[in-house]
Amino acid sequence: MTFNEELKDITTYEGGKPIELVVREFGIKSEDVIKLASNENPNGVSPKVVEVVKNSANLMSQYPDDSMYRLKDGLGKRFSVKSKNIIIGAGSDQVIEFAIRAKANKQKGILTAGITFAMYEIYAKQIGAKVFKTNSITHDLDEFYETYLKNKDEISIIFLCLPNNPLGESIPTKDVYAFLKKIDSDTLVVVDGAYNEYASFKDSKYVIDVQNLITTFSNLLYLGTFSKAYGLGGMRVGYGIADEGIIQTLYKLRPPFNITTLSLEAGVEALKDSEFVNSSISLNFKEMQKYENFSKVNKISFINSYTNFITLIFDEKFNSKEIANILLKKGIIVRDLTSYGLNAIRVTIGKPKQNDIFLEAFLEIIS
Ligand SMILES: *Cc1c(COP(=O)(O)O)cnc(C)c1O
Predict the structure, then answer these.
(1) What is the distance in A from the centroid of ligand 1 to the CA of 194?
(2) Is residue 238 within 6 Å of ligand 1 at its C-beta?
C-alpha cells in the first residue's frame, strides 16, 4: 500500500524501554528493574494526588470538564496569567503538534538545535515541513540567529528547548530575551520548559517569568508539562501559555476532551503540592553530584545538566550502545543516544539507592 510521501523518512519515536520488557526478556523481577531512561520523577507522585485520583475513580464514566476551568485557574495563578492565555494538551507533546500544524507547512519549516527533543522534527515531517538545525548540538543562540537570518523565508517556528533534552544544557534567561528581540514578530518562538522547574531551582539566572515573557513577546509560546518534576508522566498533562491570539488559534486544532477526567483531577491537585515538587528537585541535584563526582574521577565527559538527567559522553574506548545493552541485562535501563549520532548515554537521576547501583554496575563495565 502507498502512504503519504511525507511519512517516508520519519523515524518512529523511540521511548525509554518499559520495565515489563526487561522482566519479559531477562527474567528479572520487576521490583529489581531500575529504569533511568524516561526522565520520570523517581519519587513517583505526590501522595495527595494519588488520594484524589482514587477518590475520583468513579468519575471515569463522565467526560471531563472541557473548559478545564480548575486546571487553567491553578496554572493561571502559578504563572500570573489568565485562563485565556492557556491551552492544555495531552502532554506538552500535543501542544507542540498544535503549534506545528498551526504555523508550519511545506514552504515554511522549523528551526531547532542540532540535537534536541525528537518530537519537533517528527511533527514537522508529518506535514512535510522542512527542519533546519544548527550545527552545534547544544543551543548556541548566535548560530540560531545566523541560521534564521539565512533561511528566514523558509522558517516559521523556532524551537528553543530550555533546558535541552537529551543533553541537559540551558541558556540564561537574559540571553534568551536578547535573542527574542531580534526575531520577527511573525515567527513563532516556542520555549519548551519541560525541565524549567529544575533549571530555575539550580540557578536563579535561569528563572523564567512566563507572564513577563509572553507579554513582552506576542510571538512566544511557552510549554510546560506535569510529566517530569510533578511525576505525572502516565497521566499525559501538559500546557502552552501565550498571547491570547496564539492560544485561540491552537484551540482550533484541539480535539475535544483531550485529557482524561482523572488526568484533570491529578493536574489540579499536583499544582497544590509544591512541597513534593521542591523536595524532588532538591534531591535530584544532590544525587546528581554523585554522577558528577564519579565522572570526574573516572574521566568520563558529561554535560553540566539543568534537568533531572545527566548525559555521559564517551570517547572511542567505549561504545554507548554496548554499555546500554550490558546495563539492560543487569536490569538497569538507560537511554543510549546512538540514534542521535552521539556516543553517549542519558541517565535519569534516580533514587539514592538506584543511583548507587547504577554507578557500581557502570564502574564494573568501564574498568
Ligand atoms: C518530556 C518532554 C516533553 C513533554 O512531555 P509530555 O509527557 O508530552 O508532557 C516536552 N519536551 C521535552 C523536551 C521533554 O523532555
Answers:
(1) 6
(2) yes
SS (H, E, C) the chain: CCCCHHHCCCCCCCCCCCHHHHHHHHCCCHHHCEECCCCCCCCCCCHHHHHHHHHCHHHHHCCCCCCCHHHHHHHHHHHCCCHHHEEEECCHHHHHHHHHHHHCCCCCEEEECCCCCHHHHHHHHHCCCCEEECCCCCCCHHHHHHHHHHCHHHEEEEEEECCCCCCCCCCCHHHHHHHHHCCCCCCEEEEECCCHHHHHHHCHHHCCCHHHHHHHCCCEEEEEECCCCCCCHHHCCEEEEECHHHHHHHHCCCCCCCCCHHHHHHHHHHHHCHHHHHHHHHHHHHHHHHHHHHHHHCCCEECCCCCCEEEEECCCCCCHHHHHHHHHHCCEECEECHHHCCCEEEEECCCHHHHHHHHHHHHHHHC
Give this prediction's pTM. Answer: 0.97
| Mean pLDDT to the nearest integer, 5-34 | 87
Contact 40 CB / ligand 1 (< 6 Å)? no
Ligand 1 centre to CA of 228 (Å) is 8
How far away, in angstroms, is 333 Cα from ligand 1 center? 19
Ligand 1: distance of its center to the CA of 134 in Å?
21
Is residue 112 within 6 Å of ligand 1 at its C-beta? no
Structural domains for the chain: 5-45+275-366 (3.90.1150.10), 47-273 (3.40.640.10)
Residue nearest to ligand 1 atom 2, measured at CA: 194
- The predicted-structure confidence for 118-176, as pLDDT tens digits, reads as follows 999 999 999 999 999 999 999 999 999 999 999 999 999 999 999 999 999 999 999 99
Q: Is 287 in the pocket of ligand 1 (CB under 6 A)?
A: no
Nearest ligand 1 atom, CA 192: 11
* Residue 233 beta carbon below 6 angstroms from any ligand 1 atom: yes
Nearest protein Cα to ligand 1, atom 6: 91
